[in-house]
Amino acid sequence: MRDRVKPREQIAGILFALPFIIGFLVFMAYPLCKAVYFSFTDYPFLNEPVFIGLRKYVRMFGDPVFWQSLRNTIVFALMSVPFSLGISVLLALLLNNKVKAPGVWRTIIFVPSLVPSVASAMLWLWLLNGKDGLVNHLLGTKIQWLTSETLVLPTLAFIGFWGVGQTVVIFLAGLQDIPTEMYEAAEIDGANALQRLFHVTLPMLSPVIFFNLVMGIIGAWSVFDGPYILTGGGGTNRSAYFYAMYIRDAAFLQTDVGYASAMACVQFLIVMTLTALVIWSSKRWVHYR
Amino acid sequence: MVAGALWLLLFGTKPGTYAYRDGTLVPGDFTVVTYWEKWTKEEAEAMQAVCDRFNETVGRDKKIFVHFVSVSQVDQKTLIATAGGNPPDIAGIWGAQMGTFSAYNALTPLHELAADGTITRETYKPFIYELCAPGGVPYAASSTPAAVALYWNKELFREVGLDPEKPPQSIDELDAMADKLIIQKPDGTIVRAGFLPNFPGWWDYYWGNFFGNRLWISETDDYRIDTPEQVRAYTWYQKYAIKYGPGNVVSFGSGFGQFASPQNPFMSGEVAMCLQGPWFVNYVQNYTPQFAGLNFTEVMRLRSLGKISEAEAETRLMKARDLFRHLYGASVPPNAVGKPSDVLIGDLDVWAIPRGARNVKEAMEVIRFFSRQDNMEMLCRSHSKPSPLMKVSDEFIAKHPNPFIDVFETMMRSDKMVAMPVSANWAKVQAEITNANNAMWRTPDKYPVGPTLKETQIAADRHLAEYREITAIRKAAKSGGGAK
Amino acid sequence: MNILKRLIIYSLLVAVAAIYVGPFLWVISTSFKTASEATENPPRWVPVSPEFRASTQPFAAKLPDEIGRRVGIIKDNYYDRVMNDPSFDFALYTRNTLIIALLSTLGASISSSLVAYALARLHWRGKNLVFGIVLGTMMLPFTVVMVPQYDLFRELGWIGSNLPLWVPAFFGVPFFIFLLRQFHMTIPNELADAARIDGCSEFRIWWQIVLPLSRPALAVVALFAFMGAWRDFLGPLIYLSHRRDFTLALALQFFQSRSGGTSWELLMAATLLVIAPIIVLFFMAQKTFIQGIATTGMKG
Q1: Which site in A40, B277, C22, C192 is 20 to 30 Å from B312, CA atoms measured?
Q2: Is the pLDDT assigned to residue B22 strictly greater than 80?
Q3: Which structural domain, as residue segments, surrounds residue A21?
Q4: CA distance B342 to B339
Q5: Are residues C120 and C205 in the same domain?
Q6: Partner residue facing B473 (CB), from A44, A52, A142
């Protein structure tokens, strides 16, 4: 296939992709290059950038806060991405059944993802309160979920279940896309519900799973608002200080755009590597038609 | 659909026009001064009132219109806009940002305002002038200032047999009173605390000053974090956590409701004494049931809507003042150095003109108006804060919502008052200090005072060293021709 | 479906819905309270005023008064202090937000699908590179790109207008491009091949075959594009300078205060007013996802 790129498809391909290409060059390429350039400068926001070479990177690799925020983000991602993805798939499967008033159920599950993080943070603060929160009340414990250095990350990962609405919707759309004939054929072949799930549903859903997995990985790196409010800015001894928070603080609190840019470039490389891994592995488990 | 989109395009992207409060449009030949401020809600409305006053008096004469925009994340927006070359004409920034803005030459010097007497050593209270004119160059005009006082709950004092009119005069007295006031259950759970050094925790970095340290050395832009005075201060600080049990204080602290709520531990009676600013009276009034109908912000709102008369508003204000004075007290915070008036800390907000602003002369005219005594007092009064000016009218003090405003005014006239460090590094250093304080408070056994302070000093010094190195490079690059 | 299965599904749905409806009820409940009720600890789901609690009358007798009081509080919160707040011009902000959202949705849906089709079904040199770039642009945090982008828009003269908020959408949104690519790749090749043999241009294939078959995915994209634009806060914060141009999401922060004095009851009321339209929109739009079952009969 590789040699036979038909000229008509070649032209069409480029034409169709042109909006993005132009948009990218105009709106993104220039800022992206600038961002990379900034990482080699000292740019205190209010004064011009001055080239200083690798100093920001050197400082970064020797900065304990950098490593801690990196570690926190990776640990959090490892916990929250599979968890949220799993919940989303389960919920989408649940919602995919023929029930009365499907719109109502779907809307209910979707709405929490619309509630601004400030509002839902307030609710969580009450629920997780160490002294008299509902969660502790129900469990009979007095655990400080959010101020404990060890418990805060799992807690934050768990809280994510309210925000899966968007992912569920995408999975639902994917589920609807699976032709009913495939299920019928599987039933004829004698497959029970569980086997249909693993041999029809999930494989057919794999392109969407792939999408949500990649987006989940990228998203875990921009986690910000909710955890910031819930942990009062990063948790005890920075135990919930995420990479995105540090970039933001570096840029706006410490007005060190050069450092923020360096961190951003590192983030880019890491996420790109992770995504490349996922893409490479996808050849094994993603089925397109 | 396309036609609709086009219509929206033309109709929707027309820029906004400017209008006075009554709806009449601003004439086209007027200069529009954009003013971005961080305050929201009632504080923003108070500022809008001052702007309206300007527009309708001086503004009409001099053909200037002030366009006031209230944005709670104004520091972020101002940074980006200034860096992007599109700053507002007047920016209302935090005093703490002065360090960064002035270090990087991001502000327009206000020599004219110094020459006409608006920003001078005589006009302003001492520490305010120091902050507005670092190194003698006036870079900002003070908007609303504040100072830190010790508030105490008189009812609780009476309950344990302490004289409600006698606040502690030293740290030792404070400790003794706290011990008398605390109630702990047999299992250690705290029911009520007399005093907790980390509540509210906004000025925790200055506890060392209360023990004789000088945290920031302005002359050399250095920080003294690891000194004997600091060790004594934070041993005292940590002592509270150890004394009552670290698990108990953290648990007690986590039960603190929001700051602005009846569950604020001071307002709910869970903590008997705390450090706070002059605006605190507003919050107490808004969230304590005894003040229903009397609270200052509500009274102002009703008066501006015309629902109550001026006389009625004043009566309620006086009632509220008396009630507050009966329930609570406020005085100069005690220290371990000498008399309470020996160590004082304060804060302020400022108006500055960012570098690159388009209408500098007109902006200065506006700031001049804001800083006039009557306008300034109107503004500070509605924010429940003291005035930054040396000249203060008797009426301001007599009719101020905070019955203890005289305490704040006296504190602010003192030479001993200190604001936060005006340094480009302060944000980074403060982050280190806060982190260390939290660790020392929550897990004392893992973070003993001596070593923790040493580590913090090392971290801060590292930031400073990097800053100095880079500043040198920047200077060399500039003088070597071409900054990039 | 047999009875047992039906029972299990419905009980699961009810249990899940009970948990998920929490935040929404919380927003509503808080918006029905006064300032001090809103910050009570522990909070109540059904607000009860102090007068009600203090009264010694029997429950049924004091209930009407309480309801009257409560209605008054609700009106005060929503009508007097949010919608009629002189600094919060609800109608105007809604109009501003609607314009930006509609334009963004239009632009994002069309352009993203075009690009996605090119990446999904066509074969051309440079395809993988472009796909890589699409993914890559999502991996750089916005914070860092914010400042140079602001610079760019300033040079174009767009600062202060709402152009930076919707024009870029017409050039494809990476998130949607990626999503649609995945969906377009599930459309069987045979359909497109058959059309090509018939002499159809690629554009017609896209317009008449691919788009209709991707309806569920397109509905998702349009919905998300609209909601994203409706709720965007950072963009309007940076690019809009005149209060008359503010959007709803930006105006919401008027009820928040950095110095610790958020009016929760007002913030919740305003939040509800802001998200109610998109909840309704979602409810109406999600029916489209069911369409897939009807159209898949035509495949293969």
Answers
A1: B277
A2: no
A3: 1-28
A4: 6
A5: yes
A6: A52
Domain with C62, as residue range(s), is 2-83
Instruction: Look at chain C and report how many structural domains it folds into.
Output: 2
Cβ of C41 within 8 Å of Cβ of A132? The answer is yes
What 3-state class would DSSP assign to A216?
A: helix
Do C158 and C58 belong to one domain?
A: no
- Residues in chain A with CB shorter than 8 Å from the CB of C267 are 118-119
Residue B316, C-beta contacts closer than 8 angstroms, at least 6 positions apart: B293, B294, B299, B308
Q: Does B293 touch chain C (CB under 8 A)?
A: no
Tell me, yes or no, whether C251 and C103 share the same domain. yes
Has residue C67 been placed in a domain? Answer: yes
Tell me the per-residue pLDDT of A168-215, one tens digit each, with 9 for 90 and over: 988 888 887 777 888 888 888 887 878 888 888 888 888 888 888 888
Interchain proximity C117–A23, CB inside 8 Å: no
Residue C38 lies in a domain: yes
Q: Are C150 and B259 an interchain contact pair (Cβ–Cβ within 8 Å)? A: no
Is C243 part of any domain?
yes
Residues A141 and A275 in one domain: yes
CA atoms within 13 A on the CB side of C250: 30
What digits encode the pLDDT tens for the residues B209-261?
999 999 999 888 899 999 999 999 999 999 999 998 888 888 787 666 556 66
Of the candidates C67, C83, C99, which is a domain's last residue?
C83
Spatial separation of the C-alpha atoms in residues B191 and B188, rounded to whole Å:
9
Q: Are B420 and B347 in contact (CB under 8 A)?
A: yes
Answer yes or no: do C289 and A173 touch at CB < 8 A. yes
**CB atoms closer than 10 angstroms to residue B184:** 15
Tell me which residue in A10, A30, A45 faces C152 most closely, judged by beta carbons.
Answer: A30
Residue pair B150/B266 in contact by the 8 Å Cβ criterion: no
Kindly indicate the confidence band of residue B371, based on its pLDDT and cuts at 50, 70 and 90: very high
Whether the complex's predicted ipTM is more than 0.85 is answered with no
Scanning chain C, the segments in alpha helix (DSSP H) are 3-20, 22-31, 35-38, 50-54, 59-75, 90-120, 127-139, 142-156, 163-166, 174-184, 189-197, 202-204, 211-213, 215-231, 234-239, 248-252, 264-285, 291-296
